[in-house]
Specification:
770 residues; globular; disordered N terminus; binds dinuclear copper ion; binds (dicuprio-$l^{3}-sulfanyl)-sulfanyl-copper; alpha+beta
């Protein structure tokens, strides 16, 4: 192994010095050759040029996509459409250690429903936090339709920090949507159910006892957490509430939620009744709900709202009496109410109508002020006449669904589910401007920052419900298809098909990448889930293992350890059968991307420990045995050696006096050969250092960081060198040789970093400065 690594080191140097030979080969083929060989048109090339991102290149926007049934969030770049990350949200995700370390298990446990662990979610609508109606890039929220919950993701590290389970709802869909200063996160029900009872309520009592609802979750920006105790819930009629949107600018203070099945049909195929789909679409209109959250907040603050289940609960009668709740008929079975960037209009798409309906907020307010209602619904909620408040209706095509906006005033894009098209139109003048076919059956669509007060336009992503024939077949379960469309010119142009192989992503939001400032490391000893210094933070040299037993004889073996290239401290953990084992590991690295993992045989343990992080695992060693553990990230040349053993002794085990015999014994000669290698390696390092320092490396932050890390590694090698020399002075050749080898290991890490820095400088055209 020793020889092998030495050879690979010289190989690394060799490769670094011969770069450039390969570049000549690919230019031999011309662009025309490639076009012919791959059957590409000029239009294809243009599309490719608009999306292709050369190595090291960055995307202009980052998209956060719902992960559908995966219960995760998918992060990808636009226009490259390269997937950058899956964020574990409602579902354990082993790569991130999410749901495996104690810290994140505590987050998932917040999402328990009726005491049950729910380990998946059906995520639908992500929302980015806003300041003055504009994306601020600080937080991301996402809902779970199946188990009514909302999660908070901090965009400082792209980790899930909190899950709140709705104590009233049994289903939801109208979340997550944020108010313009992220005061609240909206979450609306989908399928009506009893709100205040968890027990059995027969369907015969549907009209009286089943209800819809709308929660305004209070968000505390300083803490970065939702505060259920300051949140409030509207009781709503048992219409299946659907999507929501928060008013902005002119309509600030209001929320809008549409609905389907205002027929209140309860189904029953097995009783010989027509199915839901018939009973829920027999009327021509459903109801758009208006809620005044600003006024509701005042009532809450004035102590006029009763508390239920740890939140504030606004019964329908109170909402009606206080003027907090109104209904407006809307074309039936809508999926999407979208507020225009100026907040003046609401665009509603009724899937079963070929029009989008544009409502004027000003007219709505006028009707409310003048008390102009066309009647009341069966629950006494005032109904505003649709014709009184419509601005216009535009015939777009079949199955309009969801709307996003262009920076050009009055220009919007609506998805047409049945026609499989995107329509671009002017909603002020009521004129269709362009249409583009997509593949196939588009649900939501999204333009860059397209639901904020200042949409960027540029690109549109069509989130198609079916992919059918777009990709290589991979069995009956197809990936989803996100299609990238260029909307920077008058005519829309389809650029790229991106398969999404992880659940059905319902909605995506995209933010300008330069608004995000994610960290590359944590403060040392950080619990990332609580955002505080971990009580288990461990420094280098302070690692320890303790075994304690309580009065009943229950024992705990607890480890405060560290990880750094390329060893885990401790390497041997001893426990006794039946012990609770707690292992806390702190990653001592400061270097970018130097993550270590920690996996153990048969204990369901897998941690991801990013630089600075402290992560913990707790399990019961209920069986005696030998349990190897190791690092799961290929972090360095000696990654495989980043290993150890948990030894669980049987109860009452009597040690027989067996001495540890070294597998290999070393001599003075071995020691001297190693020292010779180390000196040669140092010469290589010196060469690399000379190369780096003779160039303007300080102009490259990446290289500066690599050099800092390499300097650290060389510092460690000094320590090992000293120990080897001390052992040699005592003629303890075994330890002299082993420490000399450790000295060399640090050198190899330094050399690896140095060569990476050198390659970076060569590829970036660094200038020689002396
Ligand atoms: S999304 S059906 Cu497909 Cu707005 Cu939820
Ligand atoms: Cu640390 Cu592999």
């Amino acid at each position: 192994m020793h020889e092998l690594t030495r050879r690979s080191l010289s190989l690394m140097v060799g490769t670094a010095l011969t770069m450039g030979a390969a570049t000549a080969a690919w230019s031999a083929e011309t662009l025309q050759d490639v076009m012919k060989r791959r059957g590409l048109t000029e239009k294809d090339l243009l599309a490719a040029a608009k999306t292709y991102t050369p190595t090291g290149g960055r995307d202009e926007y980052l998209a956060f996509s719902s992960g559908g049934q995966s219960g995760q969030v998918i992060v990808y770049g636009i226009p490259s459409m390269r997937i950058l990350k899956y964020i574990g949200v409602f579902t354990p995700e082993p790569w991130q250690g999410y749901g495996f370390d104690d810290e994140s298990k505590a987050v998932l446990a917040q999402g328990r429903i009726r005491g049950k662990d729910i380990v998946y979610g059906d995520t639908h609508h992500p929302a980015i936090s806003e300041t003055d109606g504009d994306y601020d890039g600080k937080y991301l929220f996402i809902n779970d339709k199946a188990n009514p919950r909302v999660a908070v993701i901090d965009l400082h590290d792209f980790e899930t920090k909190q899950i709140v389970a709705n104590p009233f709802f049994k289903s939801e869909h109208g979340g997550a949507f944020v108010t313009p200063n992220t005061e609240y996160i909206m979450e609306g029900t989908q399928y009506a159910a009893p709100l205040l009872e968890d027990g059995f309520v027969p369907l015969e009592e549907f009209n009286d006892k089943y209800r819809g609802g709308l929660t305004y979750w209070k968000f505390n920006r300083e803490k970065g957490r939702i505060e259920p105790e300051n949140s409030f819930v509207f009781e709503l009629p048992p219409y299946s509430q659907d999507l929501s949107d928060a008013g902005k600018q002119d309509s600030y203070g209001w929320g809008f939620t549409n609905s389907f099945c205002s027929e209140r049909y309860v189904g029953g195929i097995e009783r010989g009744r027509p199915p839901f789909e018939a009973g829920c679409s027999s009327k021509d209109t459903d109801f758009l709900h208006l809620t005044n959250w600003k006024k509701a907040e005042e009532l809450v603050r004035a102590g006029k709202v009763e508390q239920e289940r740890g939140m504030y609960f606004i019964p329908m009668e109170q909402a009606i009496a206080e003027g907090l709740l109104y209904l407006i008929p809307e074309p039936k079975s809508p999926h999407g109410v979208d507020v225009t960037p100026d907040g003046k209009y609401l665009i509603v798409s009724g899937k079963l109508d070929s029009h989008v309906s544009v409502y004027s907020f000003e007219k709505i307010m006028q009707a409310i002020e003048e008390g102009e209602f066309e009647g009341k619904d069966p629950y006494g909620v005032p109904i505003i006449g649709m014709q009184d408040v419509l601005h216009t209706q535009i015939n777009l095509g079949l199955g309009p669904l969801h709307t996003q906006f262009d920076p050009e005033p009055c220009v919007a894009y609506t998805s047409l589910y049945v026609d499989s098209q995107v329509a671009k139109y002017d909603y002020c003048k009521g004129k269709v401007l362009d249409k583009l076919s997509i593949h196939y059956n588009i649900g939501h669509l999204m333009t860059m920052e397209g639901d904020s007060v200042s949409p960027d336009g540029k690109y549109l992503v069509a989130l198609n419900k079916l992919a059918i024939d777009r990709f290589n077949p991979v069995g009956p379960l197809h990936p989803q298809n996100h299609q990238l469309i260029d909307i920077s010119t008058e005519k829309m142009q389809l650029l790229y098909d991106m398969p999404v192989p992880l659940g059905e992503p319902h909605y995506v939001v995209a933010i300008r990448a330069d608004k995000l400032k994610p960290a590359v490391r944590y403060k040392s000893g950080w619990d990332s889930r609580t955002d505080q210094r971990s009580p288990y933070k461990t420094r280098a040299g302070r690692e320890k293992t303790e075994r304690t037993c309580d009065a009943e004889g229950k024992c705990t073996t607890e480890v405060w350890g560290t990880v750094i290239r390329s060893h885990i401290t401790p390497e041997i953990i001893e426990a006794e059968e039946g012990d609770t084992v707690k292992i806390h590991l702190t990653n001592l690295e400061r270097a970018q991307d130097e993550v270590h993992g920690f996996a153990m045989y048969g204990q369901n343990v897998q941690l991801s420990i990013e630089p600075g992080k402290t992560a913990s695992t707790t399990f019961v060693a209920d069986q005696a045995g030998v349990f190897p553990y190791y690092c799961t990230e290929f972090c360095s040349a000696l990654h495989l050696e980043m290993q150890g053993y948990l030894l669980v002794r049987p109860k009452g085990y009597q040690a027989t006096a067996v001495k540890l015999v070294e597998g290999t014994l070393y001599t003075k000669e071995d020691y001297e050969t190693q020292v010779k290698t180390n000196l040669e390696t140092q010469a290589v390092i010196d060469q690399v250092v000379a190369y780096i320092t003779s160039h303007n490396f300080k102009d490259f932050p990446t290289v500066v960081a690599l050099v800092e890390d390499a300097t650290d590694q060389l510092g460690f090698s000094e320590g090992a060198k000293k120990k080897s020399e001390e052992a040699a002075a005592k003629e303890d050749w075994q330890n002299a040789m082993l420490w000399a080898n450790q000295w060399w290991q640090y050198q190899v890490k330094a050399a690896d970093l140095g060569l990476r820095a050198k390659t970076y400088l060569e590829e970036s055209g660094a200038q020689k400065v002396w």
